[in-house]
Amino acid sequence: MSVSRRGEVLEFAVLGLLAESPMHGYELRKRLGSLLGPLRAFSYGSLYPCLKELVARDLLTQDDVPAATTSEPLRGRPSRRSKIVYRLTGDGKERFQALLAESGPSAWEDDNFGVHLAFFARTDREVRLRILEGRRSRLEERLATVRTALTRTKERVDGYTLELHRHGLESAEREVRWLDKLISAEQHDSTTRRNRSTDRSDTTRTDPTPR
Amino acid sequence: MSVSRRGEVLEFAVLGLLAESPMHGYELRKRLGSLLGPLRAFSYGSLYPCLKELVARDLLTQDDVPAATTSEPLRGRPSRRSKIVYRLTGDGKERFQALLAESGPSAWEDDNFGVHLAFFARTDREVRLRILEGRRSRLEERLATVRTALTRTKERVDGYTLELHRHGLESAEREVRWLDKLISAEQHDSTTRRNRSTDRSDTTRTDPTPR
DNA sequence: TCCCGATGTATCAGCGCGATACATCGGGGG
DNA sequence: CCCCCGATGTATCGCGCTGATACATCGGGA
């Protein structure tokens, strides 16, 4: 209760990046940008408090690096500020592994899905499949809602609004097809191991090839 | 200053919806949902404070409607809470027209573009074109940044992250093509039919927009 | 009858963004 | 030679917005 549970996506991303190699805040934020895209990138106003909390939870350690690169005897300025390098602790690695293994709804909700996908290379194949399929049915279900809402009000809306929604709808449909491609790639890839692709693990009725 | 300037998108949307007809908060929020899509829809935690502020700025009036629909003599309950209907004032209509005429960068930034497009039926054709073209170049410019960033790091990222960014890139490219279609539709519309574009008059005469 | 979902108004904790502040450093132009 | 500028680097604050929650009425189905 008192843990205050920050949004897990930033925590997850930070742990994953620091699992590759220790680094300082500025560098971390840049990597965050290239991980999640220029959008989705978190600001320092989120990053630094998050780092602070992770240190408090003993998932990270922070080492102040004086960065006395030269033999310069530390001039008049008493405080020669430099980098603060963050590093994963054992608990941190454990926590990251636990988050990697997460395959429930929290893994495929809008905000979280991107990060989980970005770390797929370090994720178990079965978990990958569950997340992809969960994401797919989540999208499909939203799609159904939007579609009916759209047809119900189709005649009562002007052409521009309609066009806006049509484009949004097509984007979502395109994302479903993209997910299908990823899923089928995963299944194909598994041919080297025992493949149980015919089991009925579908959470929702998914017709093969809607159209 | 003291005006506190709330995010203009909600204000714009609310004014636009109330310009069609007065209504109460609950109804307003539903329309907001079908205007901007289920995502993008604002929560009551945003809507009610916004309404309060707009009333304080004399852009809206709020009328408490007892909702004694029938001749029912108002049974035992002393407090028969009912709807609070919001209505545009003259200043409100003026403000909405001013926002409709907005064609600067604020009109085509990510957050604002959707609302402006949703009200295109009530927007001057020239303003429509400027907004569409502004939006297009904004997207194109971001696209260029992402593309170079992607090729620079192409080899240093695992396949899943790459795929994620590739899909995002294609979505943006698709949106550009979509804008191109809208722009060309606008231009075509102007050459074929001589719209009474030069007249003043009607504030809201909606011409049948392209399919 | 009782519960449930829709209608209806309203608030609150907390999160994340954007702006801002401060400080060091290398380099290019006046 | 200096000064500005942009990149590097850490950090905070205001505030809009979300999701949860609260409360109240109503119609309808089990």
What share of the residues of chain A lie within helices?
Answer: 55-70%
Rounded average pLDDT of chain A? 84
Largest interface, C-beta within 8 A: A-B, 30 and 35 residues
As residue ranges, the low-confidence spans of chain A are: 69-80, 194-211
Class derived from helix and strand content of chain A: mainly alpha
Number of strands of chain A: 3
In oligomeric terms, what are we looking at?
A: homodimer
Apparent shape of chain A? elongated
Explained architecture:
The structure is a homodimer of 211-residue chains. In chain A, 24% of the residues are buried. In chain A, helix 1 crosses helix 4 (90-101). Chain A is built from eight helices and three strands; from the N terminus they run H-E-H-H-E-E-H-H-H-H-H. By secondary structure, chain A is mainly alpha-helical. Mean pLDDT of chain A is 84; it is low at 69-80 and 194-211. Chain A has helices at 8-20, 25-36, 44-56, 90-101, 105-108, 110-118, 125-152, 159-189, and strands at residues 23-24, 60-64, 84-88.
